[in-house]
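Morning - PBG inputs below, output right after.
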Amino acid sequence: MTQPLRIGTRGSPLALAQAHETRDRLIAAHPHLAAPGAIEIVVFKTTGDRILDRTLAEAGGKGLFTKELEDALLDGRADLAVHSMKDVPTWLPDGLEISTLLPREDTRDAFFSRGGQSVDDLPAGSVVGTAGLRRQAQILERRPDLKVVPFRGNVQTRLAKLDAGEVDATLLALAGLRRLGLTDRITAVLEPEVMLPAVAQGAIGIEIRSADDATRALLAPLNCPQTAARVGAERALLAALDGSCRTPIAALSTLDGDRLTLKAKVLSPDGRQVFRAERAGAAADAVALGADAGAEIKAVLPPGFFLP
Ligand SMILES: NCc1[nH]cc(CCC(=O)O)c1CC(=O)O
């Protein structure tokens, strides 16, 4: 029998759901892969899964959720790695590439509060738990009277902490909740005007060895060109900004036919300073539009704005 195609993934329920979606799409495109043993899902624990007592910004380092999967690709323990593109660093290791983007889920953030209030109705002084600086900065931009505290753990853990009263409210990506079937608990879905999403939020990307033409060919029918253009624009913005995970950066591109619109925002962690850029143009120019918007913001940021 030939070697199985090995899908590398993290072990969180969301990561496993995304690995299973990838397997199902592979089988739909190539029915022979439904044979027993043709596809194997291999679970790897990443640094981000181990560190649960600090925020990601404090843990520092890029690729907290991707490095172990990339090591497995590079030394042949996996043939493809499935990632939330939101967690994929701007620069990939030599010899690897994102070959495929699956059709994007909803990009918005979902808001949960114990009392059922939305962001604007929370009583002053309410405690919002969030892991990320992007959500912290935008919550404080709109509601400087709220208190934001660090909040880690996978989706289920965070909802349990909310129930236990550790915080009054929290936010999670709607995409992950949809994939886990956990949307019934949502208090409100936040529009991008209130909470601009993270770069590539809601997109699943598949990483392979650049030299692995066989796996690239198998994955080709799974690629969604619209998602690729949108994520291409947003990640080009990130590259041009050359920020770190300690910088609140938010961006969203949308497509109307072949016309791509990109909205981008860089904030100070306390939400007091906000820098925006917007671009629109042909989808074929997605990367240039993103890079251009990033350069525009970078040019006006005060010196030392990005923490190392
Ligand atoms: N490691 C955090 C992470 N990475 C991707 C998602 C959600 C799914 C997505 O945005 O594609 C989440 C959880 C969250 O932010 O609520």
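Note: Residues 13-29 form the longest helix (17 residues).

O.
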